[in-house]
Amino acid sequence: MNSKTLNPVDLKMTEDWEGNNAAFTCPSCSKVFLVSGMIHKKGRACPACGLAIAYVEGGRKSGGSARIEWATSE
Ligand SMILES: [Zn+2]
User: Fold this and answer.
1) How far apart are the CA of 22 and the centre of ligand 1, in A?
2) pLDDT (mean) for 9-13
3) What is the model's pLDDT at position 73?
4) Ligand 1 center to residue 32 CA distance, Å?
5) C-alpha of residue 39 to centroid of ligand 1, in Å
6) Cα(53)–Cα(11) distance, integer angstroms
7) How many angstroms separate the Cα of 30 from the Cα of each of 25, 51, 60, 64?
């Protein structure tokens, strides 16, 4: 399993994070999808391919975390 954690002070062009909502780009299919720490308490799978799942806990400016996990292609 691969994972990537968003850096709250260094968001890439393919990412966004505001409050407890973050946008991720699926590493498997490139779909952009939004994850809410309020709504998706158990994470949210990529709505296009389902091969990645992203999690948001807490807020960007309050020590929260945002990460995405996906299976390795082997
Ligand atoms: Zn996907």
Assistant:
1) 16
2) 98
3) 67
4) 8
5) 19
6) 18
7) 5, 11, 23, 24
Instruction: Report how far residue 23's alpha carbon sits from residue 13's, in angstroms, rounded to the nearest whole number.
Output: 11
Give residue 58's domain range. Answer: 2-70
Q: How far is the CA of 38 from the centre of ligand 1 (A)?
A: 22
From the CA of 58, how far away is ligand 1's center (Å)? 24
| Tens digits of residue pLDDT in 13-38 | 999 999 999 999 999 999 999 999 99
Q: What is the pLDDT of residues 34-68, one digit of tens each?
A: 999 999 999 999 999 999 999 999 999 999 999 99
For residue 33, how far is its CA from the centre of ligand 1 (angstroms)?
9
Provide the domain count of the chain: 1
Alpha carbon of 44 to ligand 1 centroid (Å): 11
What secondary structure letter does DSSP report for 54? Answer: E
